[in-house]
Amino acid sequence: MSAHNRPLSPHLQVYKPQLTSVLSISHRATGIALAVGTLLLVWWLVAAAAGGEAFDTAQGFFGSWFGILVLFGFSYALMYHLCNGIRHLFWDAGYGFELETAYRSGWLTVGASVALTLVAWIIAAAS
Amino acid sequence: MIGNSARSTSMRTALGRVRHLGSAKEGVHHWWMQRLTALALVPLVLWFVVSLAGMSGMDHAAATAWIGSPSVAITLVLLIGATFYHAQLGVQVVLEDYIHNEGLKLAALVLVKFASIVLSVAAIFAVLKIAFGG
Lengths: 127, 134
Hints:
The complex is a heterodimer of chains A (127) and B (134).
Chain A: H1 19-50, H2 52-63, H3 65-92, H4 99-126
Helix pairs in contact in A: 1-2, 1-3, 2-3, 3-4
Chain B: H1 14-18, H2 29-53, H3 60-68, H4 70-98, H5 102-133
Helix pairs in contact in B: 2-4, 3-5, 4-5
């Protein structure tokens, strides 16, 4: 068999999506989104250092409906990547590989990331 | 005698000479640094998100007062350093996995590594300017 005709696994077009695989690719997707999102952090800090006018422009964007939408998405991606990252650290330490445990930690990641995001926005709304 | 070098004094192959000497100990460097920065980022990110959430809609004076206070400035510099170190390691793996053209892959890796350095230096400079410049 030539190197080009080898079977690929998992073949995404026919492979049934599962919680574990969806969370796995989501970790990558949120990682890339967060890497791009660091531009917002740099913008905010550089604007604060540049002066009041530049800072007001940045705050104006973050306070707009589009800015809030971006920040909400960013905050969820951050909390998801953080929770699933902790899940990965447990795997690295050798724990949680049993199928049942992997699913339980997966749902825990989903629940914790949603809860942490909501808590952050409740704090933001109250302050 | 011609060719009387170290090579000709041994019948052992190059592979045979290095076998069992162990690795160069660099094989897990990328993996280890990704985990180390991940561990550091857990408390740093939670601190940053809770802090910003508690000050939403702050004006310039409040923002610079917060950023410029010594403990916050130090923690922000640590956050920026760990964030960009972690991000460029992660993006590197993704690029290596999905870009199959060697030239394009190299260009993308150089771009990401340079951008990470430039962005982190800019962010750290901004924090230090606020902290020292008042």
